[in-house]
Amino acid sequence: MKYLGHLSTDDPFYEYLRYDILPALHSVNHPDFRVYELRASNHVYLYEERDSGARVIGKFFGGVPHIGPDAALRHMEQEFNNLNYLRRIGFNAYPHYVVRPLGRNASLNHVVVEEYCYGTHFKHVILKAIRENVRDVLFQKLTALAYFLATLHNRTAHERKVEFNKECDYFDQVMNRLLSAAWIGWDQAQDLYRLKNRWRDKACMWEDCEVLIHGDVTPDNVLFGDGLWVIMLDLERMKSSDRVFDLGRVVGELQHFFLQQAGDKWRAEPFIGHFLWEYSCHFPDRDAAFAAITRRLPFYAALTLLRISRNAWIGAAYRKRLLDEARRTLE
């Protein structure tokens, strides 16, 4: 978090915060907002009112490279509406919580304003397990996360079956990014496409019903409180898909953290097994649920590793390791 200074009273966003947002939180006659920049893919800022201590998050979907006004409007509406929808169906209290949206304004660079939530980032729990061997806390928080995701998926299940072609198309999008940046060779890419098509031919990838998935369960988008409390952020990518998409994202992220920080992705296996087993306990037949999930999991875990490898901040040597691990996982 980087301190940027105070929000000018001449800024139109100041007026919006003062008259449309702050009254729902505190009564302040002449607010003074400190501004902090947060690390995020969008332009995300923390605004803290000096006297009351009230904090809000502003997520600006406009002004982001390669995103035009129509796409910015769509992302803004998706984030705002998805948050409201999940809160309406019960994700607004302990132990399952999604951040409360306070307002949106397309004329102010397509901003969504959300409440600021306190908690421990999933990322910090993982890093503490790796660097300080604080394993029990990671096991406990993976139990809580599994409970949240199982509740989300089971509460929103549809009768229609998974359309796995959609995730194959997403696989192609990730690969196109890697190819266009020359981060992967043509032969290596063709091998990954071949493996993807083998997964497309597996009946198990089409067998489950669609559910609403978070779509971006990364360690930056999950906060933990006491006990089973899980606070979920960033809902703009929520969609109907295979429940294992979310599970594979968590598994792939755990593998990435242990590979990057400890040099060995297999050290994540006890935590991965625990997470999947805890998720499976929320079904009538735990063993059958675990078997069905783990049949489909390698594709989505590999997709997560490929997705991580397309980030510009990834170094060449580590990108090669991620690509190699993705291929082995797909096989």
From TrEMBL:
It comes from the Bacteria. The keyword Transferase applies. GO terms for molecular function: transferase activity. It holds the Pfam family APH. InterPro entries: Aminoglycoside_PTrfase, Kinase-like_dom_sf. Residues 38-268 form the Aminoglycoside phosphotransferase domain. Keywords: Transferase. This is Phosphotransferase enzyme family protein.
